[in-house]
Amino acid sequence: AKLCRVVALQELSLRPLEILKMSLYRNTVWFLKGLQEYTKGGYEAAARSFSEADLEVNVSGRSFIITGANSGIGRAAACEIAKRGGTVHLVCRNEDRANEARKDIVERCKNENVHVHLVDMSSPRKVWEFASGFSQKHNLHVLINNAGCMVNQRELTEDGLEKNFATNTLGRKVDSWTYVLTTALIPTLKKSENPRVITVSSGGMLVQKLNVEELQFEKGSFDGTMAYAQNKRQQVIMTEQWAAQHKEIHFSSMHPGWADTPAVQSSMPDFHAKMKNKLRTEAQGADTVVWLAISDAASRQPSGLFFQDRKAVSTHLLLASSRSSPAEDQKLMSKLEELAVKFKC
């Protein structure tokens, strides 16, 4: 409860009373929900209803891109897909860690079809360049937008974009990834059988309502945790919008729960210290990613939904006043398109 109050009270100084009350309500309900559902115990309870047959799939001949795949949930997902014969493309920023991850996955999964692509994911231009080059050389069946970052003070990329926004929204958890990468690869995905796009979001988005007028957090004090949650809300809305626009592709977003990953350890050290005995393993956090990427059961679900532990769940807390209007959702997509085009090759 103390941790929950700290997160909520970070917004005290600059918010009107009505917004403050709603923020406190959202954070309190979300944290209590998290203790029950997002922890290791929550996963174990949900897993009792999982069908083992869902993941008894051979995906030889299918090609997967996984961003941020050199550690954490991305690496765990890559390993599970490689075990089942998939061709896995690891998109990473750090060459040494990427090569180490590839070597480990190949040895453990007995699959040589694991490839490393080095991309500066904080640069929209580099993302466009990568997608263009990839499409000329490879086919693609599944895109997993997993890479991400949480910056605790406002920083700008070399392109003048706020770093959380650049990574988690424009691109994807990693400076400018999700929107640009997905948009650039949609034509390639449409050429494949049963194409899918999975975006690893966060339950933290439940505490935020879309603020389409402040995409890069240029006003007021900067809170990295809240910026990250706002980016995750944007990702969920993007998934819904893409699903409506591109019927040939199955889109989904998901929450991996609270997992013990290097990213959590480095970006939220206090949270990790308090919760480390309750956090999920990386494999548990990756389970729904893998399920969405390869199972027939997932492809039978409607496109555009938000998943937690292999089930579609609400994108809003009860009475949280976090819903945006269709006009606001469309405005988000228009603004992202406007920004992305500036960096297109």
From TrEMBL:
It comes from the Eukaryota. SUPFAM superfamilies: NAD(P)-binding Rossmann-fold domains (SSF51735). InterPro entries: NAD(P)-bd_dom_sf, SDR_fam, SDR_member_12. Pfam families: adh_short. PANTHER family: DEHYDROGENASE/REDUCTASE SDR FAMILY MEMBER 12, DEHYDROGENASE_REDUCTASE SDR FAMILY MEMBER 12. This is Dehydrogenase/reductase SDR family member 12-like.
